[in-house]
Amino acid sequence: MMLQTTETMKKVNTLAFGTVTLLLLGAGQVDAQIPAGPRELGMGGAYMGVARGYESVFLAPANLALLDGPNWSLGFPQVAVGGSVSGPELTDFIDIVDYDDLEDSRQDELLGLFDNGTEGSFAFRAPLLTFSSGSFGLGVSYSALGSHTLSQDLAELFLEGYEDGRTDYSVGDTYGQRATFWDFAASYARNIAGISVGGTAHYIMPRTLVRTRLFEPQVDLEAQDVTVNYVGVISKGGSGYSLDLGAAFKPHPSLTVSGAVSNVTSQINWSEDLYVRDFTLDRDIIDNATPQDILNRYEATEAPLDPTAVPLRVFEAAELLYDEAYLPAVSRLGVAWSPAARTHIAADVHNKLTEGRLAEAWDQRISVGVQQSLWILGLRAGYSTANDGGNMVTGGFSLGPLDVGVAKYQQKDAGDIATRGWIATFGLGMDQNF
Amino acid sequence: MLRKFFVLSAMLVAAGCEQESQSLPFDVNATTTSSVSTQGGVVSSPGGASVSFPQGAVSGTVQVSVAPSTVPAAVTSSGTVASDAFKIEPENTTLAKAAELELKFSPSGSNAWLASLVGISSGVLREYGATRVDLSSGVAATDVTRLGTFAVVIPEAAAVHRVQDSTSNVEIPLVAAVGPGQTTRTISVDCGNPGDRCTGLTLTASQNILNQVEDAAAVYPLVTDQITISGSLASGQITANAPVRVFLESGTTAETIEFNAKLTAQNDVVTETSTQVRVAGVLFEVSGSADSETGASSEIATLIINKSSGNGTVVIDRDFDITVSGGGTESANVAIAVPVQLNP
């Protein structure tokens, strides 16, 4: 009976692990790299000189006043989703789903991938509606960024289940964070003596800022019980703004140079009305509850955070809630050469000027990309590299108003542990010249 | 051109002022006050203290306050102070059920796992060897039944008795001995408080416990009282509270195996030789938590105090079950050997 329960638990735990990790995959390091639009992603993010019309609103506001832009343009929902995880590769996760059926050697190999723990991150960015008319532009976008670490022992717990009598489980280095916000943007640009200058004002409407932490297990040797606390602290709402400024010009009809500094000035004030979720998993829950059941119970514990009446773990979990939870200033400079009307070759340099975790994770990146259109079909390819060794290979296509972009992301840290991820974007866009 | 562009960008951003991280809306220096009813409740200070009252801990409604405080001088007699102090009032309130008190501390050094809460109420110092420690979050927690001013200390060396191998036979130094031809009149012990630690106390544990921990130690053991012998009959009692701190193999947390014992003689017969004092029919009551029946045992046995080699010791042990690797349950054991004074 005990054996049966243990085996069942292994499967459930594996399922839980798969759910968590796939959630992480489907949804940071990638967070910043994630371009808002599929065309931009397809060209490796080298799009400063190429963007025209609605594409300029969130990227290169000065381009709105370039003379070769459309009279009006409209971008329907553009959805970009990216995720990355350090350590295991995608094929490893496929095996993890069937962990119980694997040979011992492969199980050991998979466990070994988590020797230094792992971190998964996700990003979701959706400029839901973007519009430009002449030198004016408007847009509304929704962003979600998140990441979660997974300690080596927690990975082992998920994969192997709880092993009786062991007191060496250490899961205290397991953290998560998530931020979601709306961005309402308005842009204007003007051509002055052949140089287009412009800006985008953003009204930021913060939705949720979350910080979670798993605490070390409490082991009661006598009661033969183990309890673990998972605590989340949540800020809901707030307000904010930011301003982007840019300039662009065309030194030659086939050449566009565009630069911008996003968040020249910005301020995000997250709500100080906090909420807390504090869930204690005991041996019975660990052994018998399903992952969905655990999630439901965790969410059901949500209550307003009263700092005069909480356990210390709540303060510990909240410690880095607001840490750098704002938009960094990023300078971007790009050049695009269009040897033919339907051919664009572009390069961008992006440089993060200030701290802030709600955008670029790469401090510096250089991107190159090419776009070739043929009737209603457009093809793109690009490559992007960061100063810390990360790189991204991208591609994409357009078919009429439908745009699709994909990218494979990779980065190695100082310990030679690779972080890998994918980004996928799609959207609908149209523009018109009169 | 690139350089100029980025310099210009940086100047623009500098002019715009970089945002700084928001501060948490917690006032770490504030005194917090909350009503605690018979239903229980939690009162906390963001500065690093929290006390959780279970249902029935207080009668009626009590206004409980938690405030940062200066560390009372007496606390330093217990060891090295490793946290801020917090005053929890109404001071000296006695709780019907123990409340869990958590304090934030600096978990540095190899002895951080021995961190213990120490409290003072109405001038009386109490050392809580039964403290639970989480090194990764720097939190020490214990159960308290009296409110007062508390801090976390790393106990002085004399208050920590590291576990010996269960088969070891450590010689306990002579405390006092009844001389040749003399008869023992009292068996007494009074050790554990600052300045009078239980020198010579030894702790042993069964191997299955040692297999699950990196280290173990009796922290702030307190052994008191005496058995008086009148004629050939003994009466009185010896009580011992010897929390056993176990540093789990994770290296991040330390838990406590509680150890409370009361040895009661009620006109029991004493026989004494040149090597032993034997008191027949002593009631041995041994338990875990002092206020519960958890793991409690009670038996009548002969108390044997060895006098050989000039030593006088009382050995008390406690048996309980633990889960071992592979899922089975085994009986485990911890024992303390306490030097006692034999007075003519």
The H-and-E topology of chain A, N to C, reads as HHHEHHEEHEEEEEEEHHEHEEEEEEE
Q: How does the overall form of chain B come out from the CA principal axes?
A: elongated
What is the helical fraction of chain A, as a range of percent? 10-25%
Low-confidence stretches of chain A: 1-33
- Estimate the helix proportion of chain B, in percent: under 10%
Strand order of the largest sheet of chain B: 2-3-7-11-10-21-20-16-13-15-26-25
CATH fold-level topology of chain A: Porin
CATH class of chain A: Mainly Beta
Tell me the radius of gyration of chain B: 25 Å
Strand content of chain A: over 45%
Strand order of the largest sheet of chain A: 1-2-3-4-5-8-9-12-13-14-15-16-17-18
Reported for the largest beta sheet of chain A, the result is: 14 strands, antiparallel, barrel
Individual helix count of chain A: 9
Low-confidence segments of chain B, given as residue ranges, are 167-176
Distance between the termini of chain A: 77 Å
- Overall average residue pLDDT of chain B: 87
Largest sheet of chain B: 12 strands, mixed
Q: Per DSSP, what share of the residues of chain B sits in E-state strands of 2 or more residues?
A: over 45%
- How many strands of chain B? 27
- Please name the CATH architecture of chain A: Beta Barrel
